[in-house]
Each structure stands twice: as structure tokens, then as C-alpha cells.
Design goal:
The chain is an all-alpha fold and 512 residues long. The longest helix has 17 residues. The N terminus and C terminus are likely disordered. It is built from 28 helices and no strands.
Length: 512
């Protein structure tokens, strides 16, 4: 049995179609023949010709008319199949619109509300049909509503009390739910109250009651997804955002934000393939934004897909060549590919922070240490000093600090080098450099002190003896150590005879 509401819509659609084909243009084609028979309601002949046209041309319009014929004959399942095939093909715009309205009406008549909403969403977003959005909103409101007059009255009382006394409003909303447990509008109002109070657990309790019955309520899925995301419940957030992207009527900015959040959620729970899918969608939605590129490259690096990461980052680099995070990740990619280009990018990172005089994020420090080590190994001492200077001292590790001290020595900044060498217990090679620093500033007493205290360290002493600057000082130390020390006798003082008593004797007293 056909639903009367469906018939009413179908009759509105049929009339304009009949007039549209009053005069076919090409009488000899299957399509034009089908149109002719269709106008005269010769459904069998019209269908026969349209099917032949489908076989010959796969024309979307012919699928549409076969769908209309099947609908008029009461075969809604078959009609639905033809309308679905029609919109997948190239069509005349007015017939495409009519096909979509047919799909919406049939889906709703069969209580296939998810497909109803999805079709309305596509119709609105892609084809610009504003009434499709209104249709979806009306359907959601209808599913949230009640026919219970007492429940409706309590709900209205709650709405009227909201601005004056919200506690009273909540009482009315709860009473409305008691009168009709399927009435979801007051449940939504209660949930929104808790949401505005940042009581997210209670808000979710109410919102999820609605989504359990209306999972295709896209705008509410979006709100719930944001709550889960703030709470770092990433699995639930991802599910909610996916539903929002499927059903919610949102603008380009909100679509991009949701794609990025669902990707981030999947990234945080280790589902990288899904995260990559949504990041690619986000990039397509707003190509000028860097965030999806950066997260996508991070995932690709974690998967050791360095070529993919490099391609992603190069696209981001074209958008902003001065972004430190892009430069940093490019450095990481080249570093993992054993390419010395890594150090060029790491250097650009620290130059960005030096120029802007901003605090350096701790995550970059390791890259700076690696770069400093590379610069030291390639004898670029001024760059080692320049890089290390902008690293906060409390974040420098021993390796970086010693490279810094060694570089200062190589640049003849001996006093500064001494300060940094003296912070550590030095190995022989660095101890030798420290001695040379003291020698260069003519502090030979310090050199002698170090040589003396390490006199029996054969490896160190051999290095000292081989150094032209330090060898003479070593010889002095050696002579001093080999010259015997003569102790001069002290002159005796005249002593007066004093009786030996217990108080002045230095020998123990024995009993007689």
C-alpha cells in the first residue's frame, strides 16, 4: 500500500515533467521516442525506449524516467534503484533535482532516515538546494517531538522559564520526559544546560540518549565529538566526528576542522591509516593550511615512509618556507635518510628562533645537539658556538657543552672555554685542551696544578710531553718533583729547669 504523503509529493513532481516533454526534439532517437510515449502515459512503450537508450548511451535522464515509470506503477524498490543510478550519471540539472527529491521521499517513506539525511546533505552541499537542508532539519525535529499534549505543555513551560529560573526550567523538562520517555527535545535542553556549565559527563549522558535513537543527527554528533576530544577520549571522538562529517550540514571551515580532529583522534590511538585518510581529505578541503601536512608527515615518518614524508613536507614548504616545524621535520627526514641536508634545515630552525628571540621548544634541542656535533666534526666552530649560545644552559647536555667549550678554544676564546671545561670531569684529550687554554692566557700555575695532579696518568702526561706549548711547563713540574726537599733544622730555644709535673710533661705518667 502506497503512503498518501508519498503520492502527494509524486503528483507534484509528475506535472512539470509531463509539460517539459510536450515537444521532443529528435523523433527518431530512443530517448525522444521514450519521452513522447511518456507524455501520453504509455508507460510500457516509454519504458521500452528508455531502456534501449540506456543500453545505447547510459544516459542519466533515461534512468530517471524509468524510475518515474516504476514509481507510477507502484514499484518503489525498482524505482529507487533507477533514481540512484540516475544521479550517478551525467544528467539534465532539472531532472537531477527531481531524481534527488524522489530519493528523499522514498527513503523517508521507508523510514530509512540515515539515507534521507545523507541525500539531503549532498543535495544541499553539492547542488545548492537550500530546501533540502530545511527538509533534513524538519525530519530531525519531527523525530525529537511528541504528540503527548501534556508533555508538550511541560516542555513549553520549561522554555519560558529558562531565562528567569533555570532550575525551574529543568523541573519542567524532566516532567515532560516522565510524561513521554520518547520526547527528546527536553532531553536536548537538559544536555545543553550541563554543557554550558562545563559538566560534560552529565551533558554526554543526555546527548547520547538522543544519538542512540537518532545517530544521524549530525550537528549533535559534532558537539559530542568536541566534548570527547577535549576529554582526550579519542576513540569516541573519532566515531562522533565521522558521523558528523557524514550527516551534519556544516560549512567548509567546520568540515576542515572536523576532518583534522578525527585524524588527530585516530593518530592518538595509533590508527594511522585512518588518520592519513582524513588528513588527505583535510588537505583537499583547505589546501593552504599547514596542520594536516605536518601531522601526515609525522605519521609517514613513524611508518618509515621517508619518501612520502618528504613529498608531503615539500608541499607544506611551498606554503610557508619559514615555518620552524616544517623545517624541523624536513631535517628529520633527511637525517633518517643519512643526507647532510638535514643540518641545513636544523640550522634554519634555530635561526628562526634566534631572529625572533623566542623561547625554543624543548623538542628541537636534540636536533640542535646533532647539528652542533656535525658542525664540530666538519670544523665549523663558529656555527657550533652560534647554535649553542641560543640553547638555554639548563637544556644543554654534556656533549653539547663540551663541543661548545672545544669550539671556543679553537676560536681562541680561552677564558670562556675554561669556564665551560671546568664544569665537567674531563677526559684526557679535553684536559689537555684545558691546560693549553691556561697556557695561552699565561696562567702557568694552573697548568702546573693540573699536570701535577695527573702526573701518574701516563696517557695524559704523554700528550703533554708531545705538545710544544705544554712540554716546557711539564719539564718544570718534573724537576720540582725530582728535587729533594731539604728540611732546615730549627734553632733550639733555651729551656729553664722546670719541675716535671703532670701538667707540663708530654710523656705518659706511670705509677711508682
Amino acid at each position: 500500500m502506497k503512503h498518501p504523503f508519498v503520492y502527494a509529493i509524486f503528483s507534484c513532481i509528475l506535472l512539470p515533467v509531463m509539460f517539459a516533454f510536450a515537444t521532443p526534439a529528435y523523433a527518431n532517437s530512443y530517448y525522444e521516442a521514450g519521452c513522447r510515449y511518456y507524455v501520453h502515459k504509455n508507460w510500457e512503450k516509454a519504458k521500452e525506449n528508455f531502456l534501449k537508450d540506456i543500453e545505447a548511451t547510459d544516459r542519466g535522464d533515461s534512468y530517471y524516467f524509468v524510475g518515474e515509470i516504476e514509481k507510477n506503477n507502484g514499484n518503489l524498490t525498482t524505482a529507487l534503484e533507477y533514481f540512484e543510478k540516475a544521479v550517478e550519471r551525467k544528467m539534465t540539472p532539472k531532472y537531477r533535482n527531481l531524481a534527488y527529491w524522489n530519493l528523499i521521499v522514498i527513503y523517508e517513506s521507508r523510514s530509512d532516515f540515515p539515507k534521507t539525511i545523507k541525500t539531503c546533505k549532498y543535495f544541499y552541499e553539492v547542488l545548492g538546494e537550500a530546501s533540502a537542508k530545511t527538509k533534513a532539519e524538519n525530519l530531525i525535529n519531527k523525530l525529537m517531538w511528541t504528540e503527548n499534549e501534556d508533555a508538550k505543555k511541560e516542555y513549553e513551560e520549561g522554555l519560558n522559564s529558562k531565562s528567569k529560573d533555570y532550575s525551574l526550567a529543568l523541573q519542567h523538562f524532566r516532567q515532560a520526559i516522565i510524561l513521554d520517555s520518547s520526547f527528546l527535545s527536553p532531553v536536548f535542553e537538559i544536555g545543553m544546560y550541563y554543557y554550558t556549565q562545563n559538566q560534560y559527563r552529565d551533558a554526554l549522558s543526555n546527548f547520547n540518549q538522543i544519538l542512540y535513537r537518532i545517530p544521524f543527527y549530525g550537528e549533535l554528533q559534532l558537539l559530542v565529538g568536541d566534548i570527547y576530544f577535549q576529554e582526550k577520549r579519542y576513540s569516541e571522538a573519532a566515531t562522533a566526528f565521522e558521523a558528523a562529517l557524514e550527516y551534519a550540514f556544516i560549512d567548509k571551515d567546520m568540515k576542515y576542522s572536523s576532518q583534522l580532529k578525527v585524524a588527530t583522534a585516530y593518530y592518538n590511538i595509533g590508527q594511522y591509516t585512518k588518520a592519513e585518510t582524513f588528513l588527505q581529505q583535510a588537505i583537499s578541503t583547505k589546501k593552504g593550511n599547514l596542520s594536516p601536512y605536518l601531522l601526515l608527515s609525522a605519521i609517514q615518518m613513524q611508518k618509515n615512509d621517508y619518501d612520502g614524508a618528504l613529498q608531503t613536507l615539500q608541499s607544506a614548504y611551498k606554503i610557508d618556507s619559514n615555518n620552524p616545524e616544517i623545517l624541523y621535520q624536513l631535517g628529520l627526514v633527511f637525517y633518517n635518510k643519512n643526507d647532510n641536508k638535514a643540518y641545513e634545515y636544523f640550522e634554519k630552525v634555530y635561526m628562526q628562533y634566534r631572529q625572533k628571540q623566542k623561547e625554543i621548544p624543548a623538542k628541537y634541542i636534540k636536533a640542535f645537539i646533532i647539528t652542533a656535533q656535525h658542525y664540530y666534526s666538519t670544523k665549523q666552530y663558529s656555527k657550533v658556538v652560534e647554535l649553542t649560545t641560543i640553547v638555554p644552559e639548563n637544556l644543554r647536555d654534556e656533549s653539547l657543552s663540551l663541543n661548545y667549550a672545544r669550539s671556543l678554544y679553537m676560536l681562541a676564546q680561552y677564558n670562556e672555554a675554561i669556564v665551560h671545561f671546568n664544569k665537567f670531569r674531563l677526559q684526557d684529550s679535553d684536559l689537555l685542551i684545558l691546560c693549553k687554554c691556561y697556557a695561552f692566557i699565561n696562567d702557568t700555575s694552573k697548568v702546573k696544578e693540573i699536570v701535577s695532579s695527573n702526573y701518574y696518568n701516563t696517557n695524559f702526561i704523554n700528550k703533554v710531553k708531545e705538545d710544544k706549548l705544554l712540554k716546557p711547563i711539564y719539564i718544570e713540574v718534573q724537576k720540582q718533583r725530582e728535587t729533594p726537599v731539604t728540611v732546615q733544622p730549627q734553632p733550639k730555644e733555651e729551656q729553664k729547669d722546670v719541675p716535671a709535673t703532670h701538667e707540663n710533661t708530654t710523656e705518659p705518667i706511670h705509677p711508682q
